[in-house]
Amino acid sequence: MDTWVGTAGEIFWVLGIIAWYVIRYPFERRAKRVRVVESRRSVTDMIGLAAAVLGQGVIPGFYVVTGRPVAADYPAYAWAVALGALLFMFAMWVFRRTHKELGKNWSITLEIRDKHTLVSGGPYALVRHPMYSSFLLIALGQAFLLSNWFVGLAGLAGFSILFLLRVAKEERMMMETFGSSYGDYMKRTKRIIPYFY
Q1: Domain of residue 110, residue span
Q2: What CATH number should be reported for the domain holding residue 79?
Q3: Quick one: CA dihedral 103, 104, 105, 106, positive or negative?
Q4: How many structural domains comprise the chain?
Q5: 195 found inside a domain
Q6: CA of residue 14 relative to chain centroid, distance
Q7: pTM given for the model
Q8: In a domain, 78, yes or no
Q9: pLDDT digits (tens, 9 = 90+) for 141-158
């Protein structure tokens, strides 16, 4: 294994995180202009978000900058970096499509916005939570791009904590808001992996 392979994985991870921010920023700005009619922000919600940021941003960022923890490193392989890059690119595509479909309904936390609508097109036709699907793809991509066991598992752990703390609450909120329409939607879609889960 040449060191350029590991460096290429790190560079691609950095570019992916920049792409993530570039995609999200305009939607975040627009969302601030839409009135929130109901918020379910909670301590557990904030813990989930913090875990995701830590596992998919802070820990891998620290690793890319410092190379630590060295003890958890393993050899980087070109096939793994290529697979990680593909997963990351697909994650960014899903991430962007999800934001576009949500439009003014998008929120970083559990909120219902003014004139909130039930979105069921685009990636939402396949899964109820494609944003989480993109986070899972990012975590998997991170595990292949950055050749360190701790950093790879940190991304998956951060995603898992966010998913476990938020998805059931989000679905409960949507059921209370949209009633049987959301119940019917749940019957015809999976949570985050099309046709499987």
Answers
A1: 3-188
A2: 1.20.120.1630
A3: positive
A4: 1
A5: no
A6: 15
A7: 0.92
A8: yes
A9: 999 999 999 999 999 999
